[in-house]
Amino acid sequence: MNIRCVTVGKHITAQGELVQELANGEAIVLSGQRQVTGKLVPALNSNMPDIIRSAEAPAP
Fold first, then answer.
1. pLDDT score at 10
2. I need a labelling partner for 53 at 20 to 30 A (CA). Which of 5, 37, 46, 60 fits?
3. In whole angstroms, what is the distance from residue 17 CA to residue 52 CA?
4. Are 32 and 47 in contact (CB under 8 A)?
5. For the whole model, what pTM was predicted?
6. Which domain holds residue 31?
């Protein structure tokens, strides 16, 4: 699962599971039961997916 954040308009953001990245630089995320299209927010930390994975899976 890849969690991403998109901006929708000037002051609205949505966070959810990445569904699809579009050719125009926008993306679709699944937020709750709603698909939201917006501009991807860049990750601040390049190893963020590793941190998320480590939180999801118990340590061996």
1. 87
2. 37
3. 12
4. no
5. 0.68
6. 3-56
52: part of which helix (H) or strand (E)? Answer: helix 48-56
Task: Tell me the per-residue pLDDT of 1-58, one tens digit each, with 9 for 90 and over.
Answer: 788 999 998 899 999 999 999 999 899 999 999 999 999 988 776 555 554 554 455 5
Query: What are the helix (H) ranges across the chain?
Result: 48-56
Cβ–Cβ < 8 Å for 39, 32: no
Identify the DSSP state of 33.
T
* Tokens 């991807």 found at: 40
What's the total number of domains in the chain?
A: 1
**Sign of the C-alpha dihedral computed for residues 46, 26, 19 and 23 taken in this order:** negative
